[in-house]
Write a structure and sequence with these properties.
Shape: elongated
Order of helices and strands: HHHH
Helix content: over 70%
Distance between the termini: 16 Å
Largest sheet: none
Number of helices: 4
Oligomer: single chain
Radius of gyration: 22 Å
Length: 107
C-alpha cells in the first residue's frame, strides 16, 4: 500500500466516522468498566465491613463474593456489547472504506 493510498483512506469520511465512532464507544465502555472496578476495589480498601456482611445467618459467604463475581460478569457483558457492535456497525463502515479503495484501484 502506498502513502498516497493511506492518505486517501485517512481522508475518507467513512473512515473518519469509523475511527471517531469506535473510539467514542470504546471510551464509554472503558469508563463504565473502570467505575465499576474501582468502586469495588475502593470499597474493599476503605470500607471492607460493607462487603463482609454474610448472605444469611447460616452461611459464611459474604456479600462481597457475589458482588466480585458481578464485576467479572459485567466485564464479559461489556465485551459482548462491543463485539456485537463491532461485528455490525464497525464492520459495515470498514467494508465501505475497503470497497471504495478497491474501486479506486480497479479504475
Amino acid at each position: 500500500m502506498t502513502k498516497e493510498q493511506i492518505q486517501q483512506i485517512k481522508a475518507d469520511p467513512d473512515y473518519q466516522k469509523l475511527v471517531k465512532t469506535r473510539q467514542g464507544f470504546a471510551l464509554k465502555l472503558t469508563v463504565a468498566m473502570l467505575v465499576v472496578y474501582f468502586a469495588f476495589i475502593l470499597t474493599i480498601a476503605f470500607d471492607p465491613s460493607a462487603l463482609a456482611v454474610p448472605l444469611s445467618s447460616k452461611t459464611v459467604t459474604t456479600i462481597g463474593i457475589p458482588i466480585g463475581m458481578a464485576v467479572i460478569v459485567f466485564a464479559f457483558i461489556l465485551t459482548g456489547i462491543y463485539t456485537k457492535r463491532a461485528n455490525g456497525q464497525f464492520d459495515d463502515l470498514a467494508n465501505k472504506v475497503k470497497n471504495k479503495l478497491k474501486d479506486r484501484l480497479d479504475v
